[in-house]
Amino acid sequence: xxxxxxxxxGWNKIQRSRHRxxxxxxxxxxxxxxxxxxxxxxxxxxxxxxxxxxxxxxxSRDLPNPNSLTERTISQxxxxxxxxxxxxxxxxxxxxxxxxxxxxxxxxGDGSELELDASGIPLFAAQATIAAEDHSFCTHKGLDFKGLxxxxxxxxxxxxxxxxxxTQQLVKNAILSSEKTFTRKAKELxxxxxxxxxxxxxxxxxxxxxxxxxxxxxxxxxxxTQNYFHKSVNELSIAEAATLASIPKATTxxx
Length: 255
Description:
single chain, 2 domains
């Protein structure tokens, strides 16, 4: 019985070896042993790495300057007040109705690198946005590989799920465009990593909250708060902040 078991194992091993040889013979690769297989894997990996480096170098040639995130001119709404200076009579804006506003405190850090404002974005509003958009924002380096893999699997089975981090969304909205091409996506990945190296998490979060669209012509959390709830962002309730946090994922739903 032992010999039979041994012979069966040996036969299976021979069959697997023959199957492997047949597969590689079809590819024009003959006499492939374990040593040659390892060399082939190393060669393919090396060639793939060179190809990836070449592609990244090609993409980086016309890559936008990451500093443009803070050096660019951001369109804001012009507001005309009454003579008391308390009531807005008219708002003048183009395609983007936006009012820039600071945060009340840091979220991922102590916020010491920011110019904070006690009447600015409350902490719970930032927390709601992070929970809805990118729960690992404070720990990743611009890309969330687990989230990306999960999104790919979900899309393969028919569920439309995004895998972009908050930093990637910021790059798409503030520096690049929404064009759906492989080249633009590659630039987005490179710039996301670079932004994480140049700016703190709280700096990126504050810019994001002033940049993202909230439906219609409302850009940034202050403009969205004023137009949806007719109040300033520092007057938001927790429920209202949660509602605002859900809008960027489906802006057309709220039009």
